[in-house]
Amino acid sequence: MNNNIVKFSSKSFLKSCTQYSKNWELTDQTLYNLCQENFDHSSLNAINAKLWIIGRTYATGIERKIPTDGNQGGSLTRLAQQLYKKRNTINSIFQKLSNISESLNVDSLRDISILHWKFTQIIKQITRKNHVPRSFASKYMHFHCPSVPIYDNYAARALKKLVPWRKELLVFDKSPNMDEEYLWHILRFWNLYKTALQNGNPVKVKHLDFYLLCVAEKLAGPKNQK
User: Fold this and answer.
1) How far apart, in whole angstroms, are the C-alpha atoms of residue 186 and residue 150?
2) DSSP-based three-state secondary structure for 198
3) Does the pTM exceed 0.70?
4) Contact 182, 132 (CB under 8 A)
5) What secondary structure does DSSP assign to 34-73, as a single string?
6) Angstrom distance (rounded) from CA 212 to CA 53
7) 83: which residues sit within 8 A by CB, 6+ positions away?
8) For residues 215 and 161, is the Cβ–Cβ distance under 8 A?
């Protein structure tokens, strides 16, 4: 037996859902509301609000990836200007995103993977050394469309333990218009999503995202848990 493998636990999942509802749901609902009420990118005012609040609340690290002019908040200001400059393309991406429902399926995951890549390519134009902002993009997109799985180091670490890679996880063909690291992540996520459903649990993408955070903290040990 591989001791590095972690098995999905319905009990732990439901416990994490309760913890999320008690401590974090209002925070996220505030972000969902902000993005739904200011969905497009035709207003620099709205873009700034979304970037600053999501970027700081979710510690996306995007500021470290974009060169600044030396002024406070310079990196986020530059990112806001980039999104505003490319607003027509971004609005097209996010309009397609709005058609994806909360109930995940293979087709929606394929669409999410492609739209995520397109969004990262716009931001990548201003990042240091062409860094791919996959974590920031997933978090920003998630609050516009709750079906988008969030990617960061915590989620990726936990998911790799819960769902070791095997070739049958590849349920749709790879495309050059997909970020490979995010693709592997959402394919693992899809497997975990189906496992949770098969265990009779009501499942939302955000609930699984929080469960992954709880698993990651447990793997890190007591000293690293919040």
Assistant:
1) 9
2) helix
3) yes
4) no
5) HHHHT-SSS-HHHHHHHHHHHHHHTT--HHHHS---SSTT
6) 22
7) 41, 47, 51, 90, 122, 123
8) yes
User: Looking at the predicted structure, is the pLDDT value of residue 1 above 50?
Assistant: no
- Residue 102 DSSP symbol: S
> Which amino acid makes up residue 203?
V
- Residue indicated by tokens 């959402």: 186
- Rounded Cα distance between 154 and 188, Å, is 14
Tens of pLDDT, residues 46-80: 999 999 999 989 988 898 899 876 666 689 999 99
Tens of pLDDT, residue by residue over 85-137, are 999 999 999 999 999 988 899 999 999 999 999 999 999 999 999 899 999 99
Mean pLDDT (whole number) for 11-33: 96
How many Cα neighbours within 13 Å face the side chain of 96?
A: 17
3 state SS of 214: helix
4-8, 131-135, 181-185, 210-214: range with lowest mean pLDDT: 4-8
Q: Residue 103: which residues within 8 A CB-CB, separation 6 or more?
A: 147
Residues 174/180, Cβ–Cβ less than 8 Å: yes
Q: How far is CA 154 from CA 12, 182, 224, in A?
A: 17, 13, 12
